[in-house]
Write a sequence for this structure.
């Protein structure tokens, strides 16, 4: 009986200190959103500088065309972030409910994939993000996938 | 007899885990949800950027 109570108390303390996926996901979503916002600020500055250096409309056309794919990839990441927030709200109402947690995990994966696509699109377009921001983005995608 | 005590023990542990999961797990706070919502980035090429693009284009025409 003593052993049973010992096992019970260990199990109870483990669960009490255990993770809350919804809470962790909320924090990861905030960090991902902040990294995306910082990336946006940098990208706007880079794009403006490229366009401001143009001396004719052909140059403007070429640069605007070059930014089309990164802009679309950024929009996908933005939408994925919004959908993740929606999944978070549902999951927080149904705390630890299995189906909402699965939906939340799918939304976390979708944002991680969208961030990877954005990094790839920027690379293809020859846009260089500051290395710290790139590292932060890669770290965030890793965290989103591990939750 | 030992088997029965064992199975009762397992049931008690399961019940305790469910109760603790329901009541003791730290809940997501409204502030954490609001912070997640507020972190949403804006469009990359928003209305302001489009206006600047147009102005730049008209200057070069």
């Amino acid at each position: 009986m003593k052993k049973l109570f010992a096992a019970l108390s260990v199990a109870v303390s483990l669960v009490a200190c255990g993770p809350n996926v919804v809470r962790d996901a909320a924090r990861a979503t905030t960090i991902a959103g902040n990294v995306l916002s910082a990336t946006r600020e940098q990208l706007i500055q880079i794009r403006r500088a490229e366009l401001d250096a143009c001396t004719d409309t052909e140059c403007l056309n070429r640069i605007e065309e070059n930014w089309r794919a990164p802009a679309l990839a950024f929009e996908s990441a933005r939408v994925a972030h919004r959908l993740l927030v929606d999944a978070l709200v549902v999951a927080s109402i149904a705390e630890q409910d299995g189906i909402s947690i699965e939906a939340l995990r799918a939304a976390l994966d979708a944002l991680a994939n969208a961030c990877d696509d954005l990094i790839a699109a920027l690379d293809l377009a020859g846009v260089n993000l500051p290395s710290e921001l790139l590292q932060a983005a890669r770290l965030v995608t890793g965290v989103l996938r591990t939750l | 007899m030992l088997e029965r005590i064992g199975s009762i023990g397992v049931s008690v542990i399961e019940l305790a885990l469910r109760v603790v999961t329901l009541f003791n797990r730290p809940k997501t706070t409204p502030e954490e949800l609001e912070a997640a919502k507020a972190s949403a980035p804006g469009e990359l090429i928003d209305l302001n950027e489009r206006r600047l693009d147009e102005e730049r284009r008209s200057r070069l025409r």
Q: What stands out?
A: Residues 21-52 of chain A form the longest helix (32 residues). DSSP finds six helices and no strands in chain A.
